[in-house]
Protein backbone atom coordinates (compact mmCIF):
# COMPACT_ATOMS: atom_id res chain seq x y z
CA UNK A 1 0.00 0.00 0.00
CA UNK A 2 1.43 3.36 -1.10
CA UNK A 3 0.15 6.50 0.62
CA UNK A 4 0.87 10.04 -0.59
CA UNK A 5 0.05 12.99 1.64
CA UNK A 6 -1.40 16.09 -0.02
CA UNK A 7 -1.78 18.30 3.03
CA UNK A 8 -4.56 18.80 5.58
CA UNK A 9 -6.31 15.39 5.62
CA UNK A 10 -5.88 14.41 1.96
CA UNK A 11 -4.35 11.02 1.21
CA UNK A 12 -3.89 9.33 -2.15
CA UNK A 13 -3.83 5.56 -1.58
CA UNK A 14 -2.58 3.10 -4.21
CA UNK A 15 -2.51 -0.69 -4.28
CA UNK A 16 -2.84 -3.34 -6.96
CA UNK A 17 -3.33 -0.85 -9.77
CA UNK A 18 -6.17 0.95 -7.96
CA UNK A 19 -6.03 4.52 -6.64
CA UNK A 20 -8.41 6.35 -4.33
CA UNK A 21 -8.20 9.83 -2.85
CA UNK A 22 -9.57 10.79 0.56
CA UNK A 23 -10.73 14.33 1.39
CA UNK A 24 -9.19 16.09 -1.65
CA UNK A 25 -8.72 19.67 -0.45
CA UNK A 26 -6.10 20.68 -3.02
CA UNK A 27 -6.76 23.87 -5.01
CA UNK A 28 -7.71 25.85 -1.90
CA UNK A 29 -4.83 24.60 0.21
CA UNK A 30 -1.92 27.09 0.43
CA UNK A 31 0.51 24.24 1.18
CA UNK A 32 -0.28 22.21 -1.94
CA UNK A 33 1.28 22.66 -5.38
CA UNK A 34 -0.52 20.08 -7.49
CA UNK A 35 -2.83 20.51 -10.48
CA UNK A 36 -6.19 18.91 -9.79
CA UNK A 37 -6.28 17.85 -13.44
CA UNK A 38 -3.27 15.60 -12.78
CA UNK A 39 -5.09 13.57 -10.10
CA UNK A 40 -6.00 10.17 -11.55
CA UNK A 41 -8.09 7.95 -9.28
CA UNK A 42 -10.75 5.26 -9.26
CA UNK A 43 -12.81 6.87 -6.47
CA UNK A 44 -13.10 9.86 -4.17
CA UNK A 45 -13.85 8.98 -0.54
CA UNK A 46 -15.03 11.60 1.97
CA UNK A 47 -15.05 11.70 5.76
CA UNK A 48 -17.37 14.72 6.04
CA UNK A 49 -18.57 17.82 4.25
CA UNK A 50 -16.46 20.74 5.45
CA UNK A 51 -14.76 22.69 2.68
CA UNK A 52 -11.25 21.70 3.75
CA UNK A 53 -12.22 18.07 3.10
CA UNK A 54 -14.82 18.22 0.32
CA UNK A 55 -12.48 20.50 -1.63
CA UNK A 56 -12.07 19.44 -5.25
CA UNK A 57 -14.28 16.36 -5.00
CA UNK A 58 -16.60 17.17 -7.88
CA UNK A 59 -13.89 18.21 -10.34
CA UNK A 60 -11.84 15.09 -9.61
CA UNK A 61 -14.90 12.83 -9.92
CA UNK A 62 -15.86 14.45 -13.21
CA UNK A 63 -12.33 14.31 -14.62
CA UNK A 64 -11.98 10.63 -13.77
CA UNK A 65 -15.57 9.51 -14.35
CA UNK A 66 -15.37 7.89 -10.92
CA UNK A 67 -17.71 7.59 -7.92
CA UNK A 68 -17.84 9.79 -4.84
CA UNK A 69 -18.24 7.62 -1.74
CA UNK A 70 -19.63 9.37 1.32
CA UNK A 71 -22.24 9.34 4.06
CA UNK A 72 -25.63 9.51 2.35
CA UNK A 73 -26.44 13.20 2.90
CA UNK A 74 -22.97 14.19 1.75
CA UNK A 75 -23.26 11.94 -1.31
CA UNK A 76 -26.52 13.71 -2.18
CA UNK A 77 -24.75 17.07 -1.78
CA UNK A 78 -21.97 15.94 -4.12
CA UNK A 79 -24.61 14.93 -6.67
CA UNK A 80 -26.26 18.35 -6.36
CA UNK A 81 -22.86 19.93 -7.02
CA UNK A 82 -22.39 17.93 -10.20
CA UNK A 83 -20.97 14.51 -9.32
CA UNK A 84 -22.63 12.03 -11.68
CA UNK A 85 -21.85 8.86 -9.72
CA UNK A 86 -22.27 8.81 -5.94
CA UNK A 87 -22.46 6.04 -3.37
CA UNK A 88 -24.26 7.06 -0.18
CA UNK A 89 -23.28 4.92 2.80
CA UNK A 90 -23.61 5.36 6.56
CA UNK A 91 -21.85 4.72 9.85
CA UNK A 92 -21.09 1.06 10.49
CA UNK A 93 -21.78 0.11 6.87
CA UNK A 94 -19.26 -1.45 4.51
CA UNK A 95 -19.08 -2.14 0.79
CA UNK A 96 -16.69 -4.05 -1.41
CA UNK A 97 -15.76 -2.10 -4.52
CA UNK A 98 -13.55 -3.20 -7.41
CA UNK A 99 -10.14 -3.53 -5.75
CA UNK A 100 -10.92 -1.98 -2.37
CA UNK A 101 -13.35 -2.09 0.55
CA UNK A 102 -14.76 0.86 2.49
CA UNK A 103 -16.26 0.76 5.98
CA UNK A 104 -17.46 3.86 7.80
CA UNK A 105 -16.82 4.35 11.51
CA UNK A 106 -17.83 6.88 14.11
CA UNK A 107 -16.12 10.25 14.35
CA UNK A 108 -17.04 13.06 16.74
CA UNK A 109 -17.12 16.35 14.85
CA UNK A 110 -19.64 18.18 12.62
CA UNK A 111 -20.41 18.27 8.91
CA UNK A 112 -21.83 21.05 6.74
CA UNK A 113 -21.18 23.12 3.64
CA UNK A 114 -22.82 25.83 1.56
CA UNK A 115 -25.56 25.14 -0.98
CA UNK A 116 -27.40 27.96 -2.75
CA UNK A 117 -26.10 30.50 -0.25
CA UNK A 118 -27.20 28.51 2.80
CA UNK A 119 -25.14 26.39 5.18
CA UNK A 120 -26.61 22.90 5.05
CA UNK A 121 -26.23 19.85 7.30
CA UNK A 122 -24.44 17.02 5.52
CA UNK A 123 -24.99 14.00 7.73
CA UNK A 124 -22.77 12.54 10.39
CA UNK A 125 -18.99 12.93 10.18
CA UNK A 126 -17.12 9.66 9.83
CA UNK A 127 -13.87 7.78 9.91
CA UNK A 128 -12.91 5.37 7.15
CA UNK A 129 -11.53 1.85 7.19
CA UNK A 130 -10.06 1.38 3.71
CA UNK A 131 -8.81 -2.08 2.80
CA UNK A 132 -6.72 -2.59 -0.34
CA UNK A 133 -4.54 -5.58 -1.18
CA UNK A 134 -5.02 -7.11 2.25
CA UNK A 135 -3.88 -4.00 4.12
CA UNK A 136 -6.12 -1.61 6.05
CA UNK A 137 -5.85 2.16 6.51
CA UNK A 138 -7.88 3.80 9.25
CA UNK A 139 -8.48 7.44 8.38
CA UNK A 140 -10.00 8.88 11.54
CA UNK A 141 -11.38 11.96 9.81
CA UNK A 142 -11.85 15.08 11.89
CA UNK A 143 -12.58 13.78 15.35
CA UNK A 144 -12.26 14.30 19.04
CA UNK A 145 -10.79 11.48 21.06
CA UNK A 146 -13.48 8.94 21.92
CA UNK A 147 -13.43 5.64 23.79
CA UNK A 148 -14.71 3.48 20.94
CA UNK A 149 -11.41 4.00 19.15
CA UNK A 150 -10.32 1.12 21.39
CA UNK A 151 -13.08 -1.02 19.89
CA UNK A 152 -12.07 -0.02 16.35
CA UNK A 153 -8.53 -1.16 17.17
CA UNK A 154 -9.69 -4.42 18.73
CA UNK A 155 -12.07 -5.36 15.91
CA UNK A 156 -9.79 -4.54 12.98
CA UNK A 157 -6.25 -5.36 11.91
CA UNK A 158 -5.09 -1.81 11.14
CA UNK A 159 -1.80 -1.44 9.28
CA UNK A 160 -1.70 2.36 9.22
CA UNK A 161 -3.80 5.08 10.85
CA UNK A 162 -4.10 8.74 9.85
CA UNK A 163 -4.91 10.73 12.98
CA UNK A 164 -5.63 14.48 13.24
CA UNK A 165 -3.32 16.38 15.59
CA UNK A 166 -4.18 20.01 14.86
CA UNK A 167 -6.23 20.69 18.02
CA UNK A 168 -8.80 23.55 18.02
CA UNK A 169 -11.14 21.79 15.53
CA UNK A 170 -10.07 18.20 16.29
CA UNK A 171 -8.10 16.34 18.90
CA UNK A 172 -4.60 17.65 19.52
CA UNK A 173 -1.28 15.79 19.85
CA UNK A 174 -1.83 14.69 23.45
CA UNK A 175 -5.20 13.10 22.71
CA UNK A 176 -3.89 11.66 19.44
CA UNK A 177 -1.24 9.77 21.42
CA UNK A 178 -4.03 7.99 23.30
CA UNK A 179 -5.78 7.30 19.98
CA UNK A 180 -2.58 5.86 18.52
CA UNK A 181 -2.33 3.40 21.40
CA UNK A 182 -5.99 2.47 21.21
CA UNK A 183 -6.24 1.79 17.46
CA UNK A 184 -3.17 -0.50 17.60
CA UNK A 185 -1.98 0.45 14.12
CA UNK A 186 1.46 -0.62 12.98
CA UNK A 187 2.14 2.89 11.70
CA UNK A 188 0.71 6.36 12.41
CA UNK A 189 0.53 9.34 10.03
CA UNK A 190 -0.41 12.71 11.58
CA UNK A 191 -2.83 14.80 9.51
CA UNK A 192 -4.99 17.93 9.79
CA UNK A 193 -2.31 20.32 11.02
CA UNK A 194 -0.28 23.37 9.89
CA UNK A 195 -2.68 24.36 7.09
CA UNK A 196 -4.00 27.39 9.01
CA UNK A 197 -2.72 29.28 12.10
CA UNK A 198 -5.24 27.76 14.59
CA UNK A 199 -3.98 24.23 13.87
CA UNK A 200 -0.21 24.77 13.83
CA UNK A 201 1.58 21.77 15.35
CA UNK A 202 4.98 20.06 15.24
CA UNK A 203 4.50 16.80 13.36
CA UNK A 204 8.05 15.63 14.08
CA UNK A 205 7.57 16.19 17.82
CA UNK A 206 4.38 14.10 17.66
CA UNK A 207 6.26 11.28 15.90
CA UNK A 208 8.99 11.49 18.56
CA UNK A 209 6.32 11.15 21.26
CA UNK A 210 4.96 8.10 19.43
CA UNK A 211 8.44 6.61 19.30
CA UNK A 212 8.80 7.06 23.05
CA UNK A 213 5.75 4.82 23.42
CA UNK A 214 7.14 2.23 21.01
CA UNK A 215 4.81 3.24 18.16
CA UNK A 216 6.07 3.85 14.63
CA UNK A 217 5.03 7.06 12.92
CA UNK A 218 5.94 9.31 9.99
CA UNK A 219 5.19 13.01 9.61
CA UNK A 220 4.90 13.14 5.84
CA UNK A 221 5.70 16.37 4.03
CA UNK A 222 3.17 17.55 1.47
CA UNK A 223 3.67 15.45 -1.67
CA UNK A 224 5.71 12.83 0.17
CA UNK A 225 4.82 9.12 0.05
CA UNK A 226 5.26 6.05 2.22
CA UNK A 227 4.92 2.39 1.25
CA UNK A 228 3.75 -0.18 3.78
Automatic annotation (TrEMBL):
Q: Which SUPFAM superfamilies match?
A: Metallo-hydrolase/oxidoreductase
Q: Which residues form a coiled coil?
A: none
Record's keyword terms, sorted: Hydrolase
Which transformation does this protein catalyse, written as a reaction?
3',5'-cyclic UMP + H2O = UMP + H(+); 3',5'-cyclic CMP + H2O = CMP + H(+)
Q: Has keyword Chaperone? A: no
Which InterPro entries does the protein's record reference?
Answer: Metallo-B-lactamas (IPR001279), RibonucZ/Hydroxyglut_hydro (IPR036866), UPF0173 (IPR022877), UPF0173_UPF0282_UlaG_hydrolase (IPR050114)
Q: Pfam families from the entry?
A: Lactamase_B_3
Which residues are in the Metallo-beta-lactamase domain? 7-192
Recorded GO molecular functions are: hydrolase activity
Residues in the signal sequence: none
By sequence similarity, the record places it as follows:
Belongs to the UPF0173 family.
What is the protein's known function? Counteracts the endogenous Pycsar antiviral defense system. Phosphodiesterase that enables metal-dependent hydrolysis of host cyclic nucleotide Pycsar defense signals such as cCMP and cUMP.
The protein's name in its UniProt record: UPF0173 metal-dependent hydrolase ACFSC9_10395
Q: Source species, please?
A: Paenibacillus wenxiniae
Amino acid sequence: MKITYYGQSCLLVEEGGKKVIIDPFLSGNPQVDVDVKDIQVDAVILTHGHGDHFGDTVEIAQNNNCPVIAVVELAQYAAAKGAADTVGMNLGGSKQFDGFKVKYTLAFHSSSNELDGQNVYLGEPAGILLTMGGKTLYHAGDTALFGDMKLIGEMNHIDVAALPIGDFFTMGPEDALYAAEWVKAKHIIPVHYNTFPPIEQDGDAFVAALDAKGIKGTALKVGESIEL
